Amino acid sequence: MAKIKTGVKVFAPASIANVAVGYDILGFAIDKPGDEIIVNFSDTPGLKITEIRGAKGKLPFEVLKNTAGFAAQKMLEHIGEERRGLEMKIHKKMPFGSGLGSSAASAAAGVMAVNEILGRPLTKSQMLPFAVLGEQIADGAYHADNVGPSLLGGMQLIRSNDTLDIHRLHVPKGLYATVIYPHIKVLTKDSRSILSDQTSLKQCIEQTGNIAGFIVGLYNGDFDLIGRSLQDVIIEPQRAQLIPHFYEVKDAVLEAGALGCSISGAGPSIFALSANSLIAEQVGEVMTRIFTNHKIKNELFISTINQEGAILI
Amino acid sequence: MAKIKTGVKVFAPASIANVAVGYDILGFAIDKPGDEIIVNFSDTPGLKITEIRGAKGKLPFEVLKNTAGFAAQKMLEHIGEERRGLEMKIHKKMPFGSGLGSSAASAAAGVMAVNEILGRPLTKSQMLPFAVLGEQIADGAYHADNVGPSLLGGMQLIRSNDTLDIHRLHVPKGLYATVIYPHIKVLTKDSRSILSDQTSLKQCIEQTGNIAGFIVGLYNGDFDLIGRSLQDVIIEPQRAQLIPHFYEVKDAVLEAGALGCSISGAGPSIFALSANSLIAEQVGEVMTRIFTNHKIKNELFISTINQEGAILI
After folding, report:
1. Would the ipTM clear 0.90, i.e. be above it?
2. For FRET with A40, which of A97, A190, B9, B207 sits at 20 to 30 Å CA-CA?
3. What distance in Å separates residue A204's CA from the closest CA in chain B?
4. Domain B8-169+308-312, CATH among 3.30.420.280, 3.40.640.10, 3.30.230.10, 3.50.50.60
5. Interchain pair B165, A213: CB under 8 A
6. Rounded distance, CA A168 to CA B129, Å?
7. Interface mutation vs chain A, best among B208, B210, B226, B233, most A CBs within 10 Å
8. Which residues of chain B have a CB within 8 Å of the CB of A208?
9. In CATH, what is the architecture of A8-168+308-312?
10. Domain-by-domain residue ranges, chain B?
11. Per the confidence metrics, is the pTM higher than 0.80?
12. Phi, psi of A123 (to 5 degrees)
């Protein structure tokens, strides 16, 4: 007779990496979209992926080639549970290649789901390295600027990706994100390959001043300082060319009252931060109108900084 | 009959610029050394410098060529008091070319003294641009990473030197600075000219991570994070060659328990931060012993982060 199957269902949210001033080291979670993963016990030893929805057949069922599967498998090996019979169902509810941390959400959901069904052997912080490993097989790089927020929630600083020296930043009340995903294809590897591996000392000084100002603004609740600081002088000028109408959107968004606006992750999504939900909504209308006028399909998300990250649902 | 001469005497402290992770944008004040300036009213219209002590004849008496004089004069013009009869006596009580913000202390003391004798027409923040102008004639650059702390006190972030977007950072209790000035000649223009005007993106990312981690460490009182963050991967490796025995000192200082250690300003002074005064003193003994063993004269200063800056004495 089969074991009683007590399943768990978890959700891990999208995330905005880089945040203008923290290339590779800063990211925050939003409320939605995100990915759902269901895990059930099974009689057959080992982890299996039995269902993938919403990925248009693009994601592998092979555990070690799948972001969520790999992350979960490495965690299971770490805790000595790799022989446990587990079936994983992945419901992709967010787009690939959007710059919203899609693979990171899958990786975060993967470790979260397995950890939940096993009675939480690990804390979220202990799960993080395995989620990062999972995203690495999709993205090639070992970095936590999407996975960190997607799993842990909040605005996360990753001082060092090598050591996963990660810190939740204080976020003032009222801070809202508006994020638009225009249906334009930008491959992460393209948006990485166009970046110069050099920068000027002057730009680097400006960028250090801006990330420092941004953090002080967050801690002091100084929205003006957050706004003045949200300027990416290094990455955005190189990547903006990959996103049609980027500067038209950015100019209009700042005109509408946003504190700042830049590229979400590797793009093509664009995010803005605002001091309250009303401005965030006006900013959203502006973003939508511009892409729609240009006949580019788009999806809009308005959210506080999601403080929960991956959750059991 | 001459007017009654009611004079004021002010002190402005030395400061540590750059602080490893904030080249041109971070600095803090220490309790001493520093400069004193005395200002008295005079019957003769205009500002005059009537005495300069401790500068070995190296500082000009001509107001517009003297750091303190220029700063004070520009401020007097701003408030419409340039015809006021004022005599300034400058007592240099700290060395030139030490990397301790000597010219900045003079500029800060200059504006502070004139402002005090005139009954405080300006706030310290309003005085700051004139002090920065004063230092500029000594240093060539318009930046506030020494002048800001010397005038305002505290650990100061200058997000932008162009706009003097300056912010006092929270400093946790217990944080101590140990600073040694080895009597070695390093000219600021040399230490600027050896710097590459390019840096790698990788180093820039590390530096942004480190300044961000440093600030989060300060705000959270997380001394371990402060320590991990206090790593200058851009400037220090280029400038260390100008300071004999720098790495011997740094290694020994970290071994003695300091959180971090780097070059103060343009050098040759070296600073360390420690989590309490006992470690700061042990660090000081280590620094002194090494330079003394190498037969290099040196002066040691141990201090909290001075929160007052320029004061009336």
Report:
1. yes
2. A97
3. 6
4. 3.30.230.10
5. yes
6. 35
7. B208
8. 21-23, 25, 207-208, 211
9. 2-Layer Sandwich (3.30)
10. 8-169+308-312, 176-304
11. yes
12. -80, 165
